[in-house]
Each structure stands twice: as structure tokens, then as C-alpha cells.
Amino acid sequence: SYPLSMAMAQFEPNYDERQVPEFKIPDPLTTFDGKKITATSEWENTRRPELYQFFEEQVYGKVPGKLDSLSFNMVETSDDALNGKAQRKQVEVSLFKNGKSLDFNILLYLPKSRKPAPIFLGYNFYGNHSITDDPNVIVSKAWAMDSEEFGISGHTLTEASRGVRVHRWALEKIIDGGFGLATIYYGEVDPDKNDFSDGLHSLFYMESQEIPKKDEWGSIAAWAFGMSRALDYLETDPDIDASHVVSFGHSRLGKAALWAGASDTRFAGVISNDSGCGGAALSKRQVGETVGRINTSFPHWFCDNFTEYNENEEALPVDQHELLALIAPRPLYVASAEDDQWADPRGEFLSAHYATSVYDLYGTKGISDTKMPEVNSPVQNTLAYHIRTGKHDVTEYDWEQYIDWAKRFVAVKP
Ligand code: GTR
Question: What is the mean pLDDT of residues 54-73?
Fold first, then answer.
């Protein structure tokens, strides 16, 4: 391979290990001013807060204030879902701030065999009705990304996309495993476009403000905030074991699931499915998608301060393994796919490995090996990792691992 010129490097993704720049992994257990952390109390009182603050102000952006109020409205419910195995609920969550409001809908399936049930909570890309063939699931009226494949045009969801993402949600397996599933259409919380006039952000503007400030939230932080508000609802539902809610997400929504888990310690566990750049993958490796590339393609995902690291990853005093470390010692599963080199599977693996020192500090087990496991050979500890065969997606195989792991590390049956 030929050395790339600096200008080309911005546009040509690198997949060659030999071209990975040399860099020092920032030590999760050394403070920014060089103090060694040796006790969980020091981690919790000193190091974790400074790391959290960095990610908040320089990467995802701060939530500017608190809601005035929120309310929950049970829109629909059935005791006879999934051939009688499950209970279905559709709950509208309304958020109020500065005289404005925003609604989003949680679709819930709960196993009738286990009450209260632990839950996987995760966003979907194309509407709650896309995850199941169940004709009773309400079609969202929110803005959607057009998709020829799924028959979505005019940014409007219709019956045409019912069930188009069934394969990404192993619903029967989840229910049979004794878990519930809660999902939300992410476009109801913040439409995925570079437009800050709509979605959650607009509720929080000071007078005459039109876009978030440089250190204020982008869309990922808004989606994470939405997950926390969904958790507020789950805590009120007696059919749900809200102390065992796992935040789950794929890709951009995996980035949101990680940030939700880092910023809200009520989440009992986190699953990052192929989250890649700005998610589980180390930024400093610059393999596949880079900070400059993601901030250019998706200028609304992160806070504006993050653009200071475009083509400048070496200036980052942190890396994404320290985002993972913010979740410690809670169970965390990082998963990659072999054909998803854009998300840098090796960078996701190493990130889990380098977060392990914080799991060790708590006496929990992470990924101590520096060698990546073979494909389809999960390593499951409190911190777990797998790389499966196949492309950027969520598969039955992924869910089989998540369910097994969650049974062992998150919600152990009495
Ligand atoms: C890609 C993006 C990734 C990932 C992915 C997805 O276009 O570059 O960071 O988020 O989309 O969400 O499927």
C-alpha cells in the first residue's frame, strides 16, 4: 500500500493495521493531572467525574437544564400479544419545557411468565411498527428518513414499513428468555437530520437561541436523554423490574445507548452493537470512520466542541475506552461484526480491553486478553465482547448472546 497524503487521509478510510498511527492509550486510572487512582472511592469522586465532564462538554454535549415536567399516558394495551405469551403496551411519554412539549411512544412486550420483568430498552430506526408484524402497533407520525427499500417517501412512515426490521429484534427469544423489550422510534425524540429547530433541543432554547451552544448536546445526547425519560416511565410500571433495564443500541443508536448508560447510572447494563466511531471504537486508531469524517457526514450528532478533534485525534486527552469505563462496574457488552470494518472491530475490542482496568478495580471481570477472540466465540464476563461473521446489522446470533449474558450478569433468576 502507498502512503496517503495528508489531504487524501481525510477522505480515504484506512483499514491497514500498519498505517495505524502510534499513540499512547490514555490511562483510565490516571487523572488529567497525573494522579494514580487505586481505590473505587477515588474513581467515583475524582476520576470518573472529570472523565464524564470531558465527554459531556467536548464530545456529546451537555443537556441544558431540566424538564419542567413529564407525563405518561397508556395509549393501548393487550394481554394477548405474541400468541398469548406476552403483554403489549404502548405508552406515550410527554415532555414539557418552556411552554413547549414533545411526545414519544414506547412499545413494550412483556413476558407473562415473569413479573416484574427485566427489560432491554433500545431505539429503532424506522418506527415501532417496523420491528414486528403485529398489526396493532401504532405507526409513528414523526419525520422519517426516506428509504426506497422500506417504501418510505415524503419523510412519512406508513403500513409499507410494518415488519421490515423484524429480523433485528429477536422478540420471541427475548420473551422466552424471561425478558421484556421496550423500543422507541428515535425520530420521535430527535429527527436524525442537521436541523436543530425540531426535536428535543428546541424545548430547551433560551429566548432567541436557535442552535445548541458549542458545549451543548447534539442528537446522540438527545437520544440518550430520551432513553432516560423512558426509564422514568419504566420505574412507574409494576410489571417491570426497573432495577434491571439494559440500554441497547445498534450503530448510531449504540453510541446513544452507551452515552445513556454513562450518564444515567440507573441503567443496570449496556449493549453496544456495532457502535463504531464515537461509540465503542477507539478514535485514535483512525481506522474506518474517523472523527473528522463523522463530524462532516453527521454534523448534528456530537457537540460542536468535538470538531476540534477533526483530523486531530492525537489532541484528545481521552479515548472511547474511557466512555466504556464510565459504565463500570455495571455489565457491558461490546459487539462487532467481521464485515463491518467501517466501525473498526479491532478498535471496539481494544476499547473493551482498555476499559478493563476499571472493572478490575471493582473486582469484576472484563476482557484481559489483548488478543481478539475468533469470530463467533464470545468472551462473556461482566464486560463482554464478541465479533460475529456477517455485516453491520443486528442478528439472531447477537441476541442469543445478549440474552445468555444478561441472564448471567444482569438479571439473574432467583
Ligand atoms: C453510518 C455512520 C456510522 C453508523 C451508521 C449507522 O453511516 O457512519 O457511524 O452510525 O451509519 O448508524 O448505521
Answer: 98
- What are the grid coordinates assigned to 365, written together? 471481570
**The whole model's pTM is what?**
0.97
Average pLDDT, the chain: 96
CA of 412 to the centre of ligand 1 (A): 33
Helix (H) or strand (E) holding 334: strand 332-337
Tell me the per-residue pLDDT of 255-311, one tens digit each, with 9 for 90 and over: 999 999 999 999 999 999 999 999 999 999 999 999 999 999 999 999 999 999 999
Residue 329, preceding peptide bond in cis (omega within 30° of 0): yes
ipTM, interface predicted TM-score of the complex: 0.95
Which residues does ligand 1 sit against, CB inside 6 Å?
Answer: 251-252, 276-277, 289, 294, 297
The verdict on whether omega for the bond into residue 238 sits within 30 degrees of 0, i.e. cis, is no
- Ligand 1: atom nearest CA of 278 is 9
Q: Which three three-digit cell numbers place residue 333?
A: 457488552
**Nearest-10 Cα torsion for 265, 270, 275, 281:** 70
Taking CA atoms only, the protein residue closest to ligand 1 atom 13 is 251
Answer left, alpha or beta for residue 251, where phi above 0 means left and psi between -120 and 50 means alpha: left
Q: Which residues are catalytic?
A: 251, 392
Write down the H helix ranges in 218-288: 219-234, 252-263
Q: What is the atom index within ligand 1 of the atom nearest the CA of 297?
A: 8
| Burial status of residue 132 (CB atoms within 10 A of its CB: 0-12, 13-18, 19 or more) | buried
Residue 326: the pLDDT is: 99
Structural element, H or E, at residue 94 = strand 86-97
CA of 341 from ligand 1 middle (Å) equals: 12
Nearest CA among 273, 294, 297 for reference residue 393: 273
